[in-house]
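On clarity, I found the account of how folds are encoded harder to follow than it need be. Since the whole study asks how a given chain folds, the encoding of that fold should be made plain. For illustration, here is how one protein appears when written out as sequence plus structure tokens:

:::
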Amino acid sequence: MTMDELKRQAAARALEHVRDGMKLGLGTGSTAKHFVELLGERVRAGLDVIGVPTSEATRDDALRCGIRLTTLDDIDRLDLTVDGADEIDPALNLIKGGGGALLREKIVATASDRMIVIADDSKWVEALGRFPLPVEVVPFGLKATQRAIARAFAESGVSGQMVLRKGKDGHVFVTDGGHWIVDAHLGRIIDAPRLAGLLAAIPGVVEHGLFIGLAGMAVLAGADGIRVVERR
């Protein structure tokens, strides 16, 4: 079974939690794209839901699939968000943002009563940090912000190289919100909640890719089938 087929299996299992009338957060990335496509099939068969996309790419996919969309300006809470992750630890803390949508993804997840993370089982790790941690920053004062980020790393017991993300065209990657992303290669994050708090306090940091205490369930697809892990 290919990696893509595993991702689609995880998306299909998460879809079992969707009910008629739900307001849904629609994640970004290759696994979340499968969820949007499968949800679209259900919508065309009569399921009545409305979604809030976490990126312009997901918005385009959802419209193509016939899913009604709204915004968090027009509704106050979401019943469920289904999204992917770059890493998932046993406490269901996450690293997200490999696709560059971490800010909108975190806004939507925080506005949701429940979050289900869908992934292939290669994303399961004992400790976060093998995947580079995305930190979304404003372009102004970048070097000063990076120095503050480095101090936050030192205070939380980690260190590593910071790389300004580039797009496929070789130019600086720009998020949907007009910001830049610094990817921090940390290897292993000793205390993810502490680091999350330190990064959030830096003025030049718009958001970071540590999602702490937001996911309630992870659906992991592997060669041996589907594994469901719930946060205790």
Remarks:
- The helical segments are 3-15, 30-44, 56-64, 102-110, 142-155, 192-200.
- Residues 30-44 form the longest helix (15 residues).
- The two ends are 31 Å apart (CA to CA).
